[in-house]
Write a structure and sequence with these properties.
The chain is α/β, with parallel strands linked by helices. It contains 13 helices and 23 strands.
């Protein structure tokens, strides 16, 4: 990929930009309630300017104290009393070699928004040819867009430091420790990455043949390209930073004890067991993980039980393979665990791929050629199937916690091993733990 022109200087009227990368204006909600520039806002923009961007278009502002204000934490320019803070912000950006403007101008430039939230160092990494080190945006809207409706400050699923740049700045430790991380999913890899950056001696134990945990399977659907890039980023970083990787190796208390760690991070992830109900152990019944891992091949007529995000993504994926897919969800709506815009996009994809959706129905029994559904008011419905895929929730892998706790005082439990949730929590808990040790 030739990005030479992107990094060439560009003259914008009387301003010379060091390259053609522009940070697009995005609401951070990091200002004080009255619109005054806060230290958190200055740190946020300083990090992006230091990362090598040519021009920063500062987030949209409000020009009076009443009518034009749209959000809490929005930047204000409605009073001369705000000028000192705005001046400090401009000076901080300029001191890092970038330019800043409040109003967008037309030019031959490339504007980036969420990509610079996810990785403020993106321009510098492009300039030095380190494309494999770029931490990619997932387009998940978790942390950036989702928190607008909650009146919270900006965050990012893959970059825990957003909005807390000073507080979460990485510092090398004076006395490195030996740390054992159990589990090579996103939580474990992020913890290992941060620990290694801080100069700890890190050993990562993973039972499977490759790193990634359940993230490997989440990247299988055709519409999850960004997630695949993030997985490769994490794998690249732990390797480049010299983390000792024992893979495949099943972690046991004895193996961990042989390593003599000062601290242990338990990031063993979660599993998706087959639930117990009539017919759940028939040969044509499998979990979503079995399907995505390639352990099970679905037939032509597939019923997917479970209408959370995972079930919806599996249904869309199966439909892309030409399968006739029916989704069953006992609640009245699908994908309620997703951010609003991501949810609407996924629902649109299900519609485009002609997935039949049955909400308000519960999977009651699986027979040899059909499933029996129970609805409200004791209604029953039969659906003919060749395969049944269950996406009915995950169970944390916590078997090692008690035996490890008996031997080691410092055991940190993170990610799905603590409680199955989203990649946001996995990455953030890994980042926080890597800083806490």
């Amino acid at each position: 990929m030739d990005l030479t022109k992107l990094m060439q200087p560009f003259r914008l009227k009387n301003r010379l930009l060091r390259n053609r990368i522009v940070m697009a204006p995005m609401l951070s909600r990091l200002c004080y309630p009255d619109g005054v520039v806060s230290p958190q806002l200055i740190d946020y923009y300083a990090e992006r300017a230091k990362g090598g961007v040519g021009l920063i278009i500062v987030e949209y502002c409000y020009i009076d104290a009443k009518e034009s204000k749209a959000n809490q934490g929005q930047l204000g320019v409605y009073s001369d009393q705000l000028i000192p803070g705005l001046g400090d912000l401009a000076e901080t950006i300029q001191e890092q070699g970038a330019r800043a403007i409040l109003q967008k101008k037309q030019a031959d430039l490339i504007a980036m928004g969420r990509a610079l939230i996810a990785d403020p160092e993106l321009p510098n990494k492009i300039h030095s040819g380190r494309l494999e080190d770029i931490r990619t945006c997932l387009r998940c809207n978790e942390g950036c867009s989702s928190r607008v409706r909650q009146s919270k400050t900006q965050r990012c699923a893959v970059n825990a430091a957003v909005g807390r740049e000073r507080q979460l700045r990485l510092h090398p430790v004076s006395k490195p420790k030996r740390v054992c991380v159990i589990g090579g999913g996103p939580a474990g890899m992020e913890a290992a990455r941060v620990l290694a950056l801080r100069k700890h001696r890190v050993t990562l134990i993973e039972k499977e043949k490759e790193l990634g945990g359940l993230l490997r399977y989440a990247t299988v659907p055709d519409f999850k390209a960004e997630l695949r890039s993030f997985l490769e980023y994490l794998k690249t970083q732990v390797n480049k930073l010299g983390v000792e990787i024992l893979c495949p190796r099943l972690a046991t208390p004895e193996i961990v004890q042989e390593l003599k760690p000062d601290s242990v991070v338990l990031a063993a992830g979660s599993t998706m067991p087959l639930p117990e109900f009539p017919g759940s152990h028939k040969s044509f019944v499998a979990t979503a993980i079995d399907l995505l891992s390639g352990k099970y091949q679905a037939g032509e007529r597939v019923l997917v039980a479970g209408g959370a995000a995972m079930g919806c993504e599996v249904a869309a994926y199966l439909a892309s393979l030409g399968k006739k897919v029916t989704m069953v969800e006992m609640l009245g709506e699908l994908a309620l665990d997703l951010e609003m815009r991501s949810r609407l996009a996924l629902l649109q994809l299900l519609q485009e791929r002609s997935v039949e959706i049955l909400t308000g129905w519960k999977l009651a029994k699986i027979e040899d050629a059909f499933v029996l559904l129970h609805g409200r008011d004791w209604r029953e419905r039969r659906v003919e199937v060749d395969s049944v895929i269950l996406a009915l929730g995950l169970t944390p892998n916590q078997e090692l916690f008690k035996p490890l706790k008996k031997t080691f005082g410092n055991v940190y439990v993170i990610g799905d091993c603590l409680e199955p949730r989203k990649i946001y929590q996995a990455v953030h808990e890994g980042a926080f733990t890597g800083r806490a040790i």
